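[step 3/7] fold_predict: job queued, chain A
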Amino acid sequence: MEVLLIDVLGKPLWTWAAFLTLIVLLLVFDLGVLHRKSHEIGVRESLALSAFYITIGSAFSLWVWQHLGEKAALDYLTGFVVEKSLALDNIFVIATIFAYFGVPRAYQHRVLIYGILGVILLRGLMIGAGAAVVTRFEWVLLLFAAFLIFTGVKMLRAGDAEYDVSANPVLRFIRRHFRVTDALLGVRFFVRLPLRGSGKAALFATPLFLALVMVELADVIFAVDSIPAIFAITTDPYIVYTSNIFAILGLRALYFALSAMMHRFVYLKTALSLVLIFIGGKVFAAELLGIEKIPPALSLGVTLALLTGGICYSLWKTRAEPRKESRAD
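[step 4/7] structure written:
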């Protein structure tokens, strides 16, 4: 059993194994039990599933508190809130991708849940690389902070610019170099079809697979913003990774409820921009004040205040808009 005590990125191997085991069990339960058959997820089911994931993610902070201490737990919660909040902006992109490929709501959960597998691997690689760089060159945190401020200001100036799926170079490359069917063929990502002229069967990708690739790519681009944001909160790879994954799990479940009412969150991007600017600014503030970092409780409080204010103000400003029809079950 000594192998479980081997140090991996500052934590015993068993802590990483326990976390990944929990994530695998959650995915098996989600995909293999709750959604074994593809169906349209309504608002009620989406909210219930999201509440389940948020409860699990929040409860994990108690485990962190018990085993790693109060400061680590506050850093985890701050990272969890920041990651989930920043990921809300990604819902706009995901909804645009599904609309572009004409993916029915009944198939969307399958794309999102398989996308989680890619997120777990890609985020692990990016966070591991980031931790190695930050550990060796601490000044990189200042670059992260400057990047966050720049990104926040850029988001403020960009406003509500829409994401153009067709202009994505990766999508163009796939369509140019691989066989792709013209229409969706159920929930399959790949199918074997006869080639024109020869009659021989060949493997074709479906638009559902293209949607999965675009969702994964959107997450990678999104991670370029979100990972530096959490490294500006804590440099502990375990806290960064666990808060990332739990936040993404819950957000994918909440997608089906939020995607139907994203038009109500008109000031969400403004709030997210201010969060990025605050997180980047507090790194420079800590340097100027000669302290290690701004207290985690203060960071969490300001982040929650900015996000709550942005969401509540958005809902108040759009209170007179007609409610879109959505399925409750």
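[step 5/7] annotate
Strands lie at 7-8, 11-12, 190-194, 201-205.
The longest strand covers residues 190-194.
exit 0
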